[in-house]
Amino acid sequence: MNEISETRCGFVALIGAPNAGKSTLMNAIVGAKLSIVTHKVQTTRAIVRGIALSGTTQLIFVDTPGIFQPRRRLDRAMVTTAWGGAADADAICLLVDAQRGLDEGNEAILAKLADTRQTKILILNKIDAVKRETLLDLAARIDAKQKFDATFMISALTGNGVEDLLNHLAGIMPIGPWLYPEDQISDAPLRSLAAEITREKLFLRLHDELPYESTVETTDWKSMSDGSARIEQTIYVTREGQKKIVIGKGGETIKAISMAARKEISAMAEAPVHLFLFVKVRENWSDDPERYREMGLEFPVEKR
Ligand SMILES: Nc1nc2c(ncn2[C@@H]2O[C@H](COP(=O)(O)OP(=O)(O)OP(=O)(O)O)[C@@H](O)[C@H]2O)c(=O)[nH]1
């Protein structure tokens, strides 16, 4: 007799328009801050995987960059990566901001979803902020455009409905061994998570002064003999004026960013951290394939 209990394991892609709440949901599920969450759109540039256990199922979440109408080359790379993540998944969850409802971006995603074979799950998010009638009306309007295998109404922020969603996903994943050790919550290398943390601090601090024209790379990570880590990161901006803004008067701004980032990176790495930040001007960094390959993005094929 086979006494071994059956395990399941699968990939779940979270797709949705920018700001739908994908990062918030993933963080709620995984219970750790893996993917940065800010009030700005398109903060998620690279795919970050979160791994959760539900019963005997291991769920590997792929948090995709917001799908939007691409214009710049970097934007196109983000969208290619987002759909690439969906194609490899066992289930695709479309997250819709119920507060915003159906807009052009969502319509385009719904049309594209029709071509995918995977189990499709609709998640209406932010139910804490909308009326029940609005929710039901939105669900009906979406259903008329695209059939989903299941619909969940949740609040990623309060956690309401998240457990039901997780249980459902756990039940539909394929039978198979777990791909990751039980205690692992992410396979994203610490270096890129650390860069994401610094980028979040940069955004939070500078708001609209530095929209999307900056990126952060961890250029060096050394484990020291006293158990601490010495980390070097470079902040790339596109113009000399932006460099001045990042540094701030008497280095005030960069010092504050560095302190906030160091604290969080240290908590993540579970070690004292010495963080060294450098600011470099690189005019066309967003057109340079090497830069986004380092961010884990795919190189988009240019249409001729
Ligand atoms: N009221 C409310 N706000 C939410 C909820 N979930 C997310 N938000 C907010 O919505 C904003 C966007 O959330 P994110 O998780 O960054 O959205 P995202 O889809 O990952 O965005 P990108 O990374 O830009 O693609 C943040 O200000 C969140 O706090 C929710 O359930 N209720």
Automatic annotation (TrEMBL):
Subcellular localization: Cytoplasm; Cell membrane
Similarity comment text for this entry: Belongs to the TRAFAC class TrmE-Era-EngA-EngB-Septin-like GTPase superfamily. Era GTPase family.
UniProt keyword RNA-binding present: yes
KH type-2 domain ranges (all copies): 206-283
Keyword DNA damage: no
SUPFAM superfamilies attached to this UniProt entry: P-loop containing nucleoside triphosphate hydrolases, Prokaryotic type KH domain (KH-domain type II)
CDD domains in UniProt: Era, KH-II_Era
Every Era-type G domain range: 8-175
Region spans: G1: 16-23
Region named G4: 125-128
Alphabetical list of Pfam families matching this protein: KH_2, MMR_HSR1
Descriptive protein name: GTPase Era
Region (G5): 154-156
Region feature (G3): 63-66
Residues the entry annotates as binding GTP: 16-23, 63-67, 125-128
Keywords per UniProt: Cell membrane, Cytoplasm, GTP-binding, Membrane, Nucleotide-binding, Ribosome biogenesis, RNA-binding, rRNA-binding
Subunit-level organization: Monomer.
Segments for region (G2): 42-46
Role, per record: An essential GTPase that binds both GDP and GTP, with rapid nucleotide exchange. Plays a role in 16S rRNA processing and 30S ribosomal subunit biogenesis and possibly also in cell cycle regulation and energy metabolism.
InterPro entries in alphabetical order: G_ERA_dom, GTP-bd, GTPase_Era-like, KH_dom-like_a/b, KH_dom_type_2, KH_sf_prok-type, P-loop_NTPase, Small_GTP-bd
